[in-house]
Amino acid sequence: MFIMRFTERPYVAYTEEDVRRSFRSSVRLTFPNSHFNPELGADLYNEYLDEYQFSEEVGFDGLMLNEHHNTPTCLGAAMNLEAAILARITKKPKIVLLGNPLPIFDNPIRLAEELAEIDMISRGRLVSGFVRGTGIESWATNTNPVHNRERFEEAHDLIIKTWTTPGPFRWEGKHYHFRVVNPFERPLQKPHPPIWIPGVGSPETLEWCARHHYPYIYLETDPEVTVSMTDLYRKAAAELGYEPGPQNFGYLWRIHVQDTDEKALEVGKGFLVGNAGVGRVPLPADFMAPAGYNSREGSKRLLEQYKHALRPDPLYGGVDAAGWEKVVETNRVVVGSPKTVIKKIRQGLEVLRPGILGVWTNDGTISHKDTMRCLELMKEEVLPAIREIGRELDLPGPFEQAP
Amino acid sequence: MPAFEEKTVTVGGAQIRYLIGGAGPQLLWLHGSEGNLGWLRLHDELARSFTVVVPTHPGFAGSERPPWLESFVDLSRFYLWIVQELNLSDAVLAGHFIGGWLAAEMAVMSPKSFTRMLLVDAAGVRPREGEITDIFLHGTEGTRQLSFFDVSQVADYELLFGTKPSPEAREAHIINREAATRYCWKPYMHDPALPPLLERLRDLPTLIVWGRQDRIVPVECGELYRKGIAGSRLEIIDRCGHFPHLEKPAEFVKVASSFLGG
Fold first, then answer.
1. N or C: which end of chain A has fewer CB within 10 A?
2. Mind listing the pLDDT tens digit for each residue in A110-157?
3. How far apart are CA B217 and CA B208, in angstroms?
């Protein structure tokens, strides 16, 4: 089992009222950046890097980062910069980028160069994930959402070719045009850094991943739905004549541990304002998915996938959705003492059987101090136990068995 | 006898739907970003003096989009082909919002193909002072609220923009939104090359009609069109928003008819 640590690096120094006053009451995209204080930002970036650096000592196999734009819910607007720093200040863990939002880049060659540098500085520890980005990323960069999937696939093909085909060569695609593709710096890993794809179960992406043998990491999706979505990948793989195993799947899970269940239950509440933002004010649907961002066929299939999901989703359903108790009861967030948490993780792993476990240790209003305590307890008790469970349940990660 | 017929024409492999009615010289009406709202009272009025042709733009609900058609300029070039296949010659070119923009683009590409041009609260030209409201960012509901000076002036409001759309209407709305996004996202609702080309239209009689309280495309854009097209005239309708033909139909038909000679 491959175990990686994640936080979305939130900024929470604002109020629900601030969110409600923003254009269309949105915490993302239009939430005024006058609410951002760079003095606090300076502290936060350094604290978050400290936590990741310590995560190596904790024993995580990977340090996972993500990228979002125009939002206080994630300070990783330039994720590759953080990745480059981690590449230099850590020695062993993989730098797992989940991922670079390909469609928003007009120059994917530049991205290929940045990632190659990170791969070399880390001496071959880069896992290069790619995403379509939420609709917010399209808005923030003025990228036409109707081309999102086309650009994702074309940028991916171009980057892979850039890494694997001797230059110079030409690229005359639909969205990208380069006459001299020949970046001098190539990645250290051969044929190229591993590609992993995170998401919430878009059928077209699952099938695309299966075609490329790329592990798919479910981003804290409803567990029951996650199992059925895995079947889409399996089916596509079967058509290609292979059977995916745990190494083809990952699951990102909010897991926070403290010395006692009571403390963890209290501190863990901070998760609620994580990527939902302070106040959990629902985002305008067309901000997250502008017209054309999903194909109409894909949207219908995605809805079909989610027909058995708990509605409203307790994690995202806004202020009036199911409360904290429901979130904990349904294991969408795992909190507790090491003993409690280990028991719950085992139950989840038995059902979901991922070879990659993303441990989202902290978010929202969970303090740096509480996070550090959580990481210490992970080091002492939780991680060794998860490793043992992974072996017992036979859950190889993608570095133990090729996906 | 029905006031109009619904037909299709195949252009470049794509089936294009259009409504046609009336008699007399041809008039091409180009719809806005909301898609083809059907045969409007306005069309009935115009059909007294003209053969009115109301196509659904490629990619909007009802008409196919050729897979290569991506940009607003593509759309304009393709539309000249639609005009050709519809055997429209010496037609009046009229359009609202993005339909007006489309008319202006087609006209500058082929000024001699049309006899007159009627632009209604048209997109296409970037204002210098204000901005064209971001209808995508405002969302459907927000945009609708900005679209009218007073909805009670719109006789068919419930019919056209009803609060309880059928599943088909909802699906059509999604398709229309997607098509508008495809063509108008960037540069948003304008073509930087259009203003200098308007000078080509000095011999095309042009009327520009605007709602004074248009909160989507500011009246300033109407002024820019007027200055850009020598000999054109700008008629501003008071107490009227973005849809003069729906909100002030009588005044709209009056100014349009006096220009068109209907």
1. N
2. 999 999 999 999 999 999 999 999 999 999 999 999 999 999 999 999
3. 13
Distance CA A131, CA A134 (A): 9
Burial B165-185 (b: 16+ CB within 10 A, else e): eeeeeeebbebbbbbbbbbbb
Chain B environment of A23 (Cβ under 8 Å): 137
What integer pLDDT is reported at residue A313 of this predicted model?
Answer: 73
Find tokens 């996972």 and name the residue.
A64
Q: Which amino acid is at B254?
A: K
Strands B206-211 and B233-237: what pairing? parallel
| CA gap B97, B120 in Å, rounded | 6
A284/B139 Cβ within 8 A: yes
Question: pLDDT for A335-391, tens place per residue?
Answer: 999 999 999 999 999 999 999 999 999 999 999 999 999 999 999 999 999 999 999
Q: Are A144 and B180 in contact (CB < 8 Å)?
A: no
Pairing of strands A62-65, B4-11: unpaired
Specify the DSSP element, H or E, that contains B19: strand B14-22
In the sheet that holds B26-30, the strands lie side by side as B4-11, B14-22, B51-55, B26-30, B91-96, B114-120, B206-211, B233-237
Model pLDDT, residue A309: 77
pTM reported for the whole predicted model = 0.96
How would you classify the pairing of strands B4-11 and B14-22?
Answer: antiparallel
CB–CB of A291 and B186 under 8 A?
no
Lowest mean pLDDT of A36-45, A311-320, A340-349, name the range: A311-320
Nearest to B88 by CA among B66, B103, B67: B103
Q: What is chain B's length?
A: 262
Domains and CATH numbers, chain B: 4-260 (3.40.50.1820)
**How many CB pairs (< 8 A) connect A and B?**
38
In chain B, which residues have pLDDT < 50? 1
Averaged pLDDT, A262-276: 94
Q: How far apart are CA A47 and CA B257, in angstroms?
A: 70
Q: Is A290 on the interface with B (CB under 8 A)?
A: yes
Question: What is the token pair recorded at A153?
Answer: 């696939």
CA end-to-end span of chain A: 13
* pLDDT at residue B1, rounded to an integer: 43
Percent of chain A scoring above 90 in pLDDT? 87
Phi and psi of B227, rounded to 5°? -70, -35
**Tens digit of pLDDT for each residue in A283-304?**
999 999 999 999 888 888 888 8
Q: Name the β-bridge partners of B209.
A: B120, B235
**Do residues A82 and A90 touch, judged by C-beta distance below 8 A?**
no
